[in-house]
Amino acid sequence: MNLSSALFGDMTKSRALFLRRYGPVFAVYGFVILLFVIGITQSERFFTERNLANVVRQAAFLGIVALGQMLVILTAGIDLSVGSLVKVSILVSAIVMNGESDNMFIAIVATLALGVVVGLIHGFLINELRIAPFIVTLASLVILRGIGLSISSSPVGKASREFIMFYVQKIGPAPIIAVMFGVLLVLTALLLRYTVFGKYLFAIGGNTEVAHLSGVPVKKVRYGVYVICSLTASLTGLLWLSRMGVGDPAIGDGIELQAITAVIIGGTSLFGGRASVLGTLGGVLLLGVTANLLVMLGVNQFIQGLVQGLVIVAAVAIYKQEGD
Predict the structure, then answer these.
(1) What is d(CA 293, CA 290) in angstroms, rounded to the nearest whole number?
(2) Residue 322: pLDDT above 50?
């Protein structure tokens, strides 16, 4: 009797641990499946190859930024500047490229270099001057947005024809942008699971002081994670250029909040120490499918924000109940 009670107790604890760990992921993907069912039954255009390709492309745009944001949040930090950096990146790349194929390489390098510089500045201010990440990146958001609008308040520059064609390219049935996002998902998962750098991220997010005393190079890791986050934003700016064909200063607004939302919905703790790549993908898909479905159903744009907010609250509430 005692043995059976002990076994039952162990099973109960194992089940509770399993739900705490994977409950958020199940909840988010359950919502995604529900939205797919609604889309299929309510709109003939929803489950078409063309629309699904658009969904995965849009998910890739947000998802790449969300991956960088997830790594920063894992360390108990945050980066509010990614949307403004996307804006500046698309403008810089469009101006440098100027419609010429010969300028494509230098435009890509210059844009990614911009991301590295921004990430290093964030790391310096957070590490050396000990300014809170929220303050640093909020100031960066305002500064970068001002730089973007000072460059141009209307579409400027032009992508080369080859660069524009990249947006519509496919590998088999999958858009190449979605494949790129998939590769980054796998690399991020491998980074967190199998590398020393990934273990350092969890350690810093769990307890920065303990990590420092344990020999973790906290400053170097922070430099690295903020550079990675800014690089994902600059890369997203390049991908937006391949879609738009010109440097549109309207691009980037609000992406930072969408990325943070996707990460938190996916089960990453806003206080650091816990992250889920699979959960982040689910959060990205939830936001992307919700937005697409509302458009397919012809919902008024003023109502769309309300519906999206309710979906987010419901998803988070259910995942909290599953995890507690």
Answers:
(1) 5
(2) no
Asked if 116 and 227 touch (Cβ cutoff 8 Å), the reply is yes
Do residues 248 and 154 make contact, with C-beta atoms less than 8 angstroms apart?
no
In contact, 119 and 231? CB cutoff 8 Å: yes
How does pLDDT run across 264-314, given as a tens digit for each residue? 888 888 889 999 999 999 999 999 998 899 888 888 777 877 876 776 676
- Which amino acid, 93? S
- State the pLDDT at residue 173: 87
What are the structure tokens assigned to 311, written together?
């979906």
* Angle between helix 82-97 and 133-151 (nearest 10): 30
User: Cβ(322)–Cβ(26) under 8 Å?
Assistant: yes
Residues ≥6 apart with Cβ < 8 Å to 76: 204, 205, 208, 271, 272, 273
**59 phi and psi, to 5 degrees?**
-65, -35
Q: What is the pTM of this model?
A: 0.90
Q: Distance between CA atoms of 206 and 269, rounded to whole angstroms?
A: 10
134 residue type, one letter: F
SS3 216: coil
Complete domains list, the chain, with CATH: 46-323 (1.10.3470)
* Digit-coded pLDDT (tens) for 140-163: 999 999 999 999 999 999 999 999
- Helices 82-97 and 255-265: crossing angle, nearest 10°? 130
Whether the CA torsion 259, 261, 262, 263 is positive or negative: it is: positive
| DSSP secondary structure letter of residue 30 | H
Condensed to tens digits (0 to 9), the pLDDT of residues 94-125 reads 999 999 999 999 999 999 999 999 999 999 99
Contacts of 34 (CB under 8 A, 6+ apart): none
